[in-house]
Design goal:
By secondary structure, this protein is α/β, with parallel strands linked by helices. The protein contains 18 helices and 15 strands. The chain binds 5-hydroxymethyl-3,4-dihydroxypiperidine.
Amino acid sequence: MGTREAWDIAARFPSSFLWGVATSAYQIEGALNADGRGRSIWESFCERPGAIDRGDDASVACDHYHRYRDDIALIRDLGVGSYRFSIAWPRIQPTGQGAANRAGLAFYERLVDGLLEAGIRPFPTLYHWDLPQALEDTGGWAARDTAARFADYTALVMQVLGDRVDHWALFNEPFIFTSRGYLLGRYAPGRRSLPDFLRAVHVVTMAHADGFRAAKAVRPSAQVGSVFAMAPCEPATDCDDDRAATAYADAVFNRLFTAPLFTGRYPQPFLDSIPLKALAMRPGDTERMRVPLDFLGVNTYYRLVVSSGGDNRPDLPYFLFDVLSDQRTTGGHADFSAPGGNILRIENAFGRSEGKRTAMGWEIWPRALHDVLLSITRDYGAIPIEICESGCAFDESPGTDGVVHDQGRIAYHRAHIAAVAEAMQGGANVRSYHAWSLYDNFEWASGYRPRFGLAHVDFATQRRTLKDSAHWYRDICRAARGNVGAAVGYGD
Ligand code: IFM
């Protein structure tokens, strides 16, 4: 691949388009006890026997907390225009409430200043799954008060960084962390409770709304959005049952959080399947939960192919696979006992695998990203879209030359970037693409085994080595770079 391809790719995007890389605090920082940081739910979860593959934990991870200066230099060398990272709530408020821990905030000030000096847009997410353990002890996301705590935390961070950071994401993938953390027990805090999950859905929705208003109160000019995991849902066959199952999967996976924020209502198929009181809504919530997010962040890794049942033991896609395999399944559907004796029924679902799979078992399906972008555009008009994560893990190791020759990852990004370009031609208002991830890192319950990075990390030495995909991506960033600064104010 030469720079010719890079120029051709960059030329398909407007000059304001930002090419970026993404990480999250817990997955790369390490230094979990440094400078007054409090404990998070993930330390507790990692201590549970069997919770994390091979017993890995994030105590060191990529040691980014100590190496951030070198990491900024590496990012700058890649030529990216935007760096998406997250802020660790337990560094800012060790117990999740009260005065800010200055040393924790100072770390992010240094990081943001370093990025700005390097001409890179700092693009923080306020919550990427590391809840202070003290808040879990008082009920976690299933407790109403946690929404108010999140708004306080948001205000504290905005007061210090709001003068330098223009674009803010409130949450990362609320459906993933509530379902896996409260319903399936696969992520921290490891609960398996439908009532807790339903309450968490509404508390996190209110936290979005309260956090949005808190951010705007401190810094009215801030652009505030949130980041959602989304996947197009396709019926396995044309039959009515599969279509109905697909509409349900779409409502739950894609709209459970966006619909209340954008329209003030939870999606109807979801409401039909639960007793409303299970959400523990209060008078006035309907009006309060509607907020005009400035942009919508999207992470798309696969499609969902949905069936209402059948005898096939399905080759299942990621999330619905977890729902079905982790819950007792009867007669082709998963039943969840809900309060009041009602039943939330997620019908059996199965995926075909026409595309190859990544090391996560996820089908490679670039069309999924295209379809998600256009469905957002159909549903919410020309709202600016930030692609906050796109990427893949493969079983790979350095060759004899010490370099990872990851042609599979290059092909992945090439196809997904083409899908974005096509969606933009179709009207999607996309303003960035962030490769997930900058580094191989702590992949939650899967530990360090799946490697998502553009840069390989040797966890024994902390040596970072650019993979072939990083060189390929760098060529695109550099080709685009000449034009980027003019429109958005970051750049050379
Ligand atoms: O590593 C995660 C990230 O934290 C959230 N989105 C999906 C990625 C890959 O699983």
